[in-house]
Fold this sequence. Notes:
The protein has helices at residues 7-15, 19-32, 37-44, 51-61, 67-73, 79-91, 97-103, 118-123, 128-137, 143-160, 166-175, 185-204. By secondary structure, it is mostly helical.
Amino acid sequence: MTVAVDLSLLAAALHGTDPKAQNDAVAAAIDAGAEAVPALLLLFAEPEVARHQIVYALERIGDARAVAVFEAGLDDTDERVRAYAARGLAGIGHPGALAALLAKLNDAADPLHLDRTPAVDALAGFGLDAVGPLLERMLDDDAMTRLHAQRALQLIVAQRLRGVSAETLRTTWQQRGDYAWDAHPGPRRAAVEAWRTWLDEQRKS
């Protein structure tokens, strides 16, 4: 069933500064789905508008008509726009989605769960294709990059071993070097090499 969206209220809310009004308007736009896309695309080009809310709504709707907004959003000054834009590309199956997510790995971290970002969660959907690049980032000089790459790999491993207990997942992690983003470089490198071996095994299976 198509849900109607009041476009005038949507525009007013996204030009305003009331977070609740913005959230309510975005929720209505998401419920409206494809019907809301043309208005959201027009609003994105307007000044003094909550761009991150618009890109979030478009990403949740998952309509390929938003591809230009997603591509432009990757270079936005607002990290939330960049993060949602990268996830939006993944949602519509864009060929550059994996690279975009890896580039925006650290953007818009959850303030209550700093190991989670929109890109971290979306990368889990790429499975083994994301593992190699994530292992490279697990050796990065930047601590937050290592943290987010570790979390994304953990989500992928959990998907590959779906149905096993948390204890089994933990044991699997420990058996491959017990990587920790804040450990010394030597143990980190050893663990990454163990995960490279795992990746080769998974590709052959």
